[in-house]
Predict the 3D structure of the following.
Amino acid sequence: MKEAGYEWDAEKKELKKMEQEQMGLPNGKDYGIDGLYHAVRILEKTLGEVEGYQSDDGILEHRCAIEAVKRLYYQKPIWSEEDERVFTLCALSVKTRYNDGLLTHHEYELASLWLETIKERMKGK
């Protein structure tokens, strides 16, 4: 249960999601560490040495995990530096048009909300 990130709250008699710090995780901080790179290296180094996890042939799941992490590591980022530059330009343009009276408040809010969520919507593609 703890490994899955939950703990039992005896007082409320319910499962409670643990905070990342409680699980020994870096709470979303990367500390300048390329986690996917190190995940691949750790998986490769421990190939065939994980007790009680692997199938009868000893390494099938482990090799699949290595390949899955490698695919994540080597794929191109969805949001590029060029995307960020154009995004910033668009956000500035919307704000300028609103300040110049060329957009209503509703139009400004609509365009701003759309721009704020575009990165998240692109991740799903």
